[in-house]
Amino acid sequence: MGPLTVLALILVWRWTPPPAAILLTIGLAALLYGLWPLLRHNFSLFYLVQESGVYGLLGLTFSRSLLPNRVATCTHLADKLHGPLSPREVLYTRRVTAAWAVFFFTVAAVSILLFLFAPLRVWSIYINFCVLPLVGAMFLAEYLVRRRVLPQVRRAGLLATVRVYLATPQ
Q1: What's the pLDDT score for residue 81?
Q2: Which DSSP letter does residue 86 get?
Q3: What element of type H or E holds 107?
Q4: Is the pLDDT score of 152 beyond 90?
Q5: Mean pLDDT of the chain
Q6: What SS3 state is found at 85?
Q7: Pick from 168, 20, 51, 26: nearest CA to 114
């Protein structure tokens, strides 16, 4: 739970004023303290919290960037890769950011629903063997749509995008 907790705390402290961040940090600590006996004796629940938490935080990160007066995550990355974007490209990248947010929230929700209502084996297969191929399929689908919607746009490739993302302080 360490990496997920640290990530959650970093986001809380970046996104909220200090008094709210203090309250949220205390709340998270209390939640973890209260749930720890249950998590310790139920490893599958531990993994559910970890997996759905990561995808939920990703969904929150992407959707939060769509709020008014913010730059959408995909718009920011495309601008770093290709320089100033046209209005059409900005609209497209905002929509792609929304699509990724929905995708990540859906992955988290399906994980929770499978955990609650399907045999543990089905949930495990989904998390361990289906999610990463789904992420790859999402990248491929977005690439194919982008080629059709914005045929004139230069293509930088996935590795260049990852490099820009990792080098961006936001």
Answers
A1: 84
A2: P
A3: helix 87-117
A4: no
A5: 88
A6: coil
A7: 51
